[in-house]
Specification:
Number of strands: 0
Distance between the termini: 36 Å
Mean pLDDT: 93
Radius of gyration: 22 Å
């Protein structure tokens, strides 16, 4: 009797965690529900701790380890980031960023890793993410078409965070085409819905007026399509031209929208008759990167302290531009903050995730392979998008780590169950 009641309590905890995690994922991309996001964060953290404690006691559901290949670089990166407080040029700022970015990010990673306990939980998390995207993107496009216009800073913390959010959503669209259990079934209605969401994604990316979002989306769809073609060669061979034509058409549309965005950027921010090539050559980030590299050379091994904007005042003062407050490249940013050691740990963590996802993709189990494909898409898209910026920060950073944790959580459960 006691065991039955305890098992019911554990199932209830899992249910509350899943609901909280799904709500958190849905609210994360917007700035208009900060209280609700805080509540869901607290609930997810609390019930994650309860479930982990139950698992460690041997009475709850076993939680598989992601393996030392992932835990070792993750631990090294976190420990080194925390250690940077002792040599930070702005210790108070570093302490705050360690709490907001690292501690809270780890909590969400743990929550989503535990929440993705089975295929149903995974689909509910993805449904929350895609449902939220559909509402937020439709709302943004609708406002952009209205006379008053759309203010990204009001609804999504800015153009950069919003466009990065779109890149993170893109790989999740694969679940609408894939069969159960990791996908939603891929029937004709879901395919139509997926096409509508893809069109909405492209429309939302267009109003974002960001050039890198197109390169990141092209990378996501190009890489995942190529890997899917290799993994499911037999299925592709039955209708190769149809799928190739769709991919070529999609990449062509993305290319045209990229060119259109680049031309409009040139008109808006440069003198008349300035070519698109000249706008890239005159990009102020080139000067920023030169200045950043000079500062990196001054402290190459330890950096200046954890925090994206650790040298914000110094960079803005030297470059006389309030927009140039950080490195605008995720790898250069890591190097500036925590030196070559921190950058090495960060690259090792990304490499460990990529290795794990590649192993998933090679599995005989199609659902596990789909998780690997989505994971690789998340990594590729996010890193390409952040070659000219650094959105491993606040909402984008937490969503990136949360989605990776969910992919890893379900993938390790399927891998440990012997389906591979």
């Amino acid at each position: 009797m006691m065991n039955r009641h305890f098992n019911r309590a554990i199932d209830l905890c899992h249910g509350v965690l899943l609901a909280a995690a799904g709500a958190y994922l849905a609210l994360q991309p917007t700035t208009i529900a900060t209280y609700g996001r805080s509540v869901t964060f607290g609930l997810a953290t609390l019930f994650t701790l309860i479930l982990v404690a139950a698992a460690l006691s041997g009475r709850g559901e076993r939680i598989p380890s992601p393996g030392w290949a992932v835990l070792a670089p993750l631990g090294a990166w976190c420990v080194w980031n925390a250690s940077s407080f002792w040599w930070s040029v702005h210790p108070a700022y570093t302490a705050g960023e360690l709490r907001r970015e690292m501690a809270w990010g780890l909590m969400m990673m743990a929550a989503f890793y535990v929440a993705a306990r089975n295929d149903f939980a995974w689909r509910m998390l993805i449904a929350a993410a895609l449902g939220s995207f559909a509402l937020l993107a439709a709302f943004a496009v609708g406002l952009a078409l209205a006379p008053a216009g759309w203010d990204a800073a009001r609804w999504h913390a800015g153009i950069g965070p919003f466009s990065t959010y779109l890149v993170l959503v893109a790989p999740l669209l694969l679940t609408l085409l894939a069969p159960a259990p990791a996908g939603f079934g891929g029937n004709r209605y879901l395919v139509v819905f997926g096409i509508l969401l893809l069109a909405l994604l492209l429309a939302a990316a267009r109003i974002a007026d960001n050039r890198m979002v197109w390169l990141a989306l092209a990378a996501v769809f190009g890489v995942t399509s190529a890997l899917a073609a290799l993994r499911w060669r037999a299925a592709l061979s039955r209708a190769p031209l149809r799928w190739l034509a769709l991919l070529v058409a999609l990449l062509a549309v993305i290319g045209l929208l990229f060119a259109q965005t680049a031309r409009e950027k040139a008109k808006a921010h440069f003198p008349p008759q300035t070519s698109v090539a000249q706008t890239f050559a005159g990009d102020p980030r080139l000067q920023l990167w030169e200045e950043t590299l000079e500062r990196i050379h001054a402290r190459p091994w330890t950096g200046y302290g954890f925090g994206k904007s650790i040298l914000a005042q110094e960079l803005k003062s030297d470059l006389h531009d309030p927009m140039l407050s950080h490195a605008h490249n995720v790898f250069m940013s890591q190097w500036l903050q925590t030196g070559a050691v921190g950058l090495g740990a960060f690259v090792a963590l990304l490499g460990a995730l990529l290795w794990r996802y590649a192993r998933f993709l090679r599995s005989r189990d199609d659902s596990l392979a789909l998780l690997g494909l989505i994971g690789i898409g998340l990594l590729v898209g996010f890193l390409v998008k952040n070659l000219t910026d650094d959105f491993l920060f606040r909402s984008n950073g937490k969503e990136f780590w949360a989605l990776n944790a969910a992919v890893l959580g379900l993938g390790m459960r399927r891998l440990r169950s012997g389906v591979a």
